[in-house]
Amino acid sequence: MSALKPPVLATWLLGLMDSNAWQDAVAGDLFEDYQQRRSSTWYWCQVLMVVAIAVGKDLRHHWVLALRALAVAVLSLCLAHSLVSQLGVVPRVLHMASPLLGWWPSVVIVAALEPFLICGPAGLAVALTHRKRGATMVLLYVAALFAILVCLCANRAHWTPGCVVFWESAVFALAGALFGGFLGCAWEGFSRTRAI
Prior knowledge:
Distance between the termini: 34 Å
Largest sheet: none
Helix content: over 70%
Structural class: mainly alpha
Order of helices and strands: HHHHHHHH
Shape: globular
């Protein structure tokens, strides 16, 4: 009988956390329980609980690093925003896409592209400047970004075109932050394994 493989993305996310004996034992127990015909949903819930506990513990013990990670994120966001503005990415894409797609689809594309290009490098910077606790600090950055975006949208008139474009931008900002951050974590892990 062949062994069931747990969801790869959940296992990878569990592997990003700082490895210690407790987390290695939990990962082994989760794998064994999954072999007992548990569902993928169960495995994901367990992994997310382990990650939440590990992140909470890291933030409690390394609160100075957490503050530094937020400062790096803010500086990186400001730098990326000014760079995207100076390069004129938004007007160029809008100018090139509007004759092909029309005005409204072009606005939708730009509303997705700009926040992704701004928040992705900030996530990468947070991960690369906090190598030992990269995943925790990236998740803190994404949580702070999410809280700010929710506060910004709290007083908007819902289901207006402006609100829909704002939420699209917010989703792509969070996706860019996660992509950049976990790219940095994976890059660091790849560099570490190549050095061995």
